[in-house]
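TA notes, week 10

Several of you asked for a full example with nothing omitted. So below is the full record: structure tokens for the whole chain, then the designed sequence directly under it. When grading your own attempts, check the secondary structure regions first.
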């Protein structure tokens, strides 16, 4: 098996495919190009009222890119609710390399010195490809997702790819689109520039509420 490189990985994202492993213990990876692709429309993000209250409370401190490897490895851990994950050592190696290039980011939910949840993904022009998230306490990953969306909106991103749609993501407005529709949206996003405001110091809730439905 030939070694995957960060350059090859970015080229794969640019044509709409991404890598996965059968399990964290499997040494190999394979390419995925789903017929139905999950996306989370940035202008259609749905903010549940309970999450809105949590954001307003300031219970979590949100940081970006301060514990990228820890976030990836936490996403790779098996849990009672998720006994099997698709993130193996090769995946960890590749995304750490992308992070060092500035092409991958983490959004982290902290309480004091304890990392309680977060997510990570890949940035390419005006597209952001969400990879995985984890939570060690109620709402931690949801708050991280809300802050990710706020940053993407501020940064001028046009596509938030979730790869698949889960019940967890559906509550925020994630939808499935066809492969051809996804490729058209991806092509459009790759023609535009965007920036990831990791050190955003403003009010994420106000950004989200500017064009977000609550329930």
């Amino acid at each position: 098996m030939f070694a995957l490189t960060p350059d090859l990985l970015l080229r794969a994202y640019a044509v709409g495919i991404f890598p996965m492993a059968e399990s964290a213990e499997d040494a190999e990876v394979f390419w995925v190009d789903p017929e139905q692709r999950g996306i989370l429309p940035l202008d259609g993000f749905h903010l549940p009222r309970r999450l809105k209250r949590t954001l307003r409370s300031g219970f979590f401190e949100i940081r970006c890119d301060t514990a990228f490897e820890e976030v990836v490895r936490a996403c790779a851990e098996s849990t009672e609710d998720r006994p099997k994950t698709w993130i193996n050592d090769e995946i960890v190696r590749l995304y750490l390399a992308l992070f060092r290039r500035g092409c991958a980011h983490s959004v982290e939910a902290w309480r004091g010195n304890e990392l309680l949840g977060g997510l990570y993904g890949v940035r390419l022009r005006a597209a952001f490809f969400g990879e995985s998230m984890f939570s060690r306490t109620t709402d931690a990953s949801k708050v991280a997702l809300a802050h990710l969306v706020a940053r993407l909106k501020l940064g001028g991103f046009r596509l938030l790819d979730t790869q698949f749609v889960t019940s967890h993501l559906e509550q925020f407005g994630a939808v499935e689109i066809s492969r051809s529709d996804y490729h058209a949206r991806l092509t459009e996003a790759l023609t535009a520039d965007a920036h990831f405001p990791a050190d955003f110091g403003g009010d994420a809730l106000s950004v989200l509420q500017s064009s977000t439905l609550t329930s």
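The chain has a mean pLDDT of 92. Use that as a sanity check on your answer.
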